[in-house]
Write the structure tokens for this entry.
Amino acid sequence: MKKVLFITYGGTHYKILNLLNDNFDMNVLMHSKFKEDWVKNHEYLEKKNIEYFDSIWKLFVNSWRNESDLVLAHCPLSGAISYFTILFSKKKRVFLMCQDFYEYFDVTESKWYRRVFLGRLIKWFIKLGCKSDLVIALSTHIRKRAIHYGAKRVKIIPIYGVDMDIFFPKKSKIKFDTDKKILLSTARFSGEKGLDNLIEAVRDLDLYLVMVGMGDSKFVEDLVKKYGMEDKVNVVGGVNPVDIADYYNACDIFVLPSLKEGLGFASAEAMACKKAVVASETGGIPDIVIHNKTGLLVKPGDVEELRNALKRVLEDEVLSKRLADEGFKHVEENFQEKEIRKDFVKTLNEVTFYVI
């Protein structure tokens, strides 16, 4: 069994490990506080002063000493570390590019001097990551960005496949005290998700908005109070992952109003539950949401366009059903987890034979 060293920031690492654990001897280094019993060689990267650089050094040393056949890096820093650790070794290297991390940083960072100086550092890290034997991109957009950063071999694998044994049309256990149609948003409560635009867009629409997501929801709750929308917006916050399919099945329409997005896989999960989807035309979302076929796409940050698209799906039941049916078919044919797992495993096994 091939040994794989997986260097990651964390967060979505469990999804990747679920795809690979049965086929590789996985060894994991993480530079964030996500601790699970099955994670080996855990290193937490303390984000302050000298400890930050000390932890980077520890990650580098552990990467260098690790006896693996393949290094799989999952973020810009991981990509840079993997680059330097294999300079004088025969290990193969794969950079898993889930998004253009610089684009994401440029949207989320408010201080201009951090955008300028840290932005340049992140770009350099990404370029080092893209010098890998193979770059795996989540979407067509990310593939283009990887090539922009100098990648020679790029393959698109939307690794966050949909488990259609979990996400499928069914009667939901969740009930909301409303007779209005339900609009669902599942997104982290942060600026790049466009949730402020969403709240403004639904102010005059006859619907009930349910907002599920991790993070600090205070800015969302403040907007709801500002517009006097407490009776039509339910800020649920974080929920148990096992319950998320019930939330999809409890809604009539799903919305993903992100300003920037790597792939936007929540839209695929909603489609697997046969829900009409309205989403921003950004990042990899258009790979999933094909405009006027599997959903409606709108310009990121355009409140009026978002409002009109939601109104159109809300009022046109024939359109809503057609989008839901086509979306379900699209996910079934292109984004099933079991098929993506096979492709991912096969690709990593073949990397040994790649030469640049």
